[in-house]
Amino acid sequence: MSELRPMRLIFAGGGTGGHLFPAIAIANRIRDLLEGRFQTEILFVGTKRGIEYRRRDSIGYPLQLINMRGLVRSLSWKNLLLPFVIVGALMKASSLLGRFRPMAVVGTGGYVAWPVLNRAAARGIPTFLQEQNSFPGIVTRRCAEAAAKVYLGFEGARSFLPGSADTVVTGNPVRTEIGQGDRNAALDKFGLDQNKTTILVLGGSQGAHAVNQAVLKSLDNGSLTSKYQLLWQTGKRDYKDVAAKAGDRVTGRSLFPFAESMSEVYAAADLAVARAGALTLAELIECRVPSILVPYPFAAGDHQRKNGQEMVDLGMAEMIDEKNLETRDLLAEAITLHQSDRFANMRDALKRYTENRRPAVDVIAEDIVRTITQGADN
């Protein structure tokens, strides 16, 4: 049997889970599609400051680090060094491409993706972009025109990109285990009652405090009635404070800072209160969980509000501005929504949307493989 030909790809992106996890999902699917046809080698590129470095042992692929960042928004001497950082990042990216010789580079966002995509395009290496948000990040906006294809999580992102960019709306890739959780097993794991409706609170990490405080206020108001229960991811920063203030109104196992297995979390949920990050929304869609969204108001380009508005327009969610939380009762509104016809309509909208669309990870991976293997099998 002849030796398989090598097929090398670079995935560049990171900083947050919203950039990293779609990259892992796409890389895994591409690896599966190429199995038996090529000797696949996949390399991830990220920074030491990003989540990709903290999770380097669980990515499943080698991680190459490049020092790259953006402007510090406040006045800072660090901005004086930025030109040197950029030049250094471009040189390292060029050296990496020369050594690894990839057939393609896939960028999923974050500043670190830019030097790799830039140098790849200059060398004539095909580049592909996956943009999670309704308002594209700066890397996508800068690199879209040169890309072979730009895969969009939301239709609204198209209007912010050059008309010459080759775009396709696929939705956002999610990890394969999302949507595979067993409801009864999940409820048992979190110590929840099988006969109650579960409201999932996703405090998240960045900007979680306002959501957590609003839910605590609702608990103090007595809004959580006997037919409902909470499953609450607080984020690490707020966990101790929330645990102390929530007391026995939330069962111990159903209150946690972070969950490794989000598939179980979603399996237990009937309704969610969450931020409007692209990854969270993709997972809520995949698991068909209606939601009340509270966009993080300081997200770049106000992209969480734009993400949330697309969900609202599709009939899958309602949205509350963070500035209005002072006068709103989140849990009372969640319960009112659950008891209304709107909730059934949301579930129907989620079902129609997921039934009529192939998984984004399959569409993206198959398109990339088709492009880079044309003629290569012969």
Characterize the overall form: globular
CATH fold-level topology of the largest domain: Rossmann fold
Classify the helix fraction into a percent range.
25-40%
Main structural class: alpha/beta
CATH structural architecture of the largest domain = 3-Layer(aba) Sandwich
Domains (count): 2
Largest sheet: 7 strands, parallel
What's the N-to-C terminus distance? 15 Å
Q: How many E strands?
A: 13
Write down the overall mean pLDDT. 92
Number of helices: 14
By CATH's scheme, which homologous superfamily of the largest domain applies? Answer: Glycogen Phosphorylase B
Q: Using only CA atoms, what is the Rg?
A: 22 Å
- As an assembly, this protein is single chain
Spatial ordering of strands, largest sheet: 3-2-1-4-5-6-7
What is the beta-strand fraction? 15-25%
CATH class of the largest domain: Alpha Beta
Structure overview:
It is built from 14 helices and 13 strands. The strands form two sheets. The protein has a seven-stranded parallel β-sheet, with helices on both faces. It has a six-stranded parallel β-sheet with strand order 10-9-8-11-12-13, with helices on both faces. The chain has helices spanning 17-34, 51-54, 82-100, 113-122, 138-143, 183-189, 209-220, 239-246, 262-268, 278-286, 303-313, 330-338, 341-355, 360-372, and strands spanning 5-13, 38-46, 63-65, 104-109, 127-131, 149-152, 167-169, 197-202, 228-233, 255-256, 271-274, 291-293, 317-319. It folds into two domains: 5-173 and 359-372, 3-Layer(aba) Sandwich (Rossmann fold); 183-355, Glycogen Phosphorylase B (Rossmann fold), CATH 3.40.50. It is 39% helix and 17% strand. The two termini are 15 Å apart. Helix 2 (51-54) links the parallel strand 2 (38-46) and strand 3 (63-65). It is of the alpha/beta class.
